[in-house]
Amino acid sequence: MYNELDLHNLDFKVALSVFKKKYNEALKKKDRREILVIHGYGANKLGHKAVLATNLRIFLSNNRDKLSYRLDTNPGVTYVTPISRLE
Description:
Number of helices: 2
Strand content: 15-25%
Order of helices and strands: EHEHEE
Distance between the termini: 26 Å
Strand order of the largest sheet: 1-2-4-3
């Protein structure tokens, strides 16, 4: 089983702060289960790009030395496995 974190309707800065807190708390508890991050895929009535999903995945990609992640067939979620603390 995994931890779950829903970041729907948050802007990227707030979502990143919430994600880091949950991630670091899991490590502190020695909980290395995957975190199911629900971010949505960016569909909305204005047709904007998936800003949260895109920026979150860029952040994860830039921190591959501290975590691993995998995508799902559902474009609105990403699975993250904690390895070491995020700053």
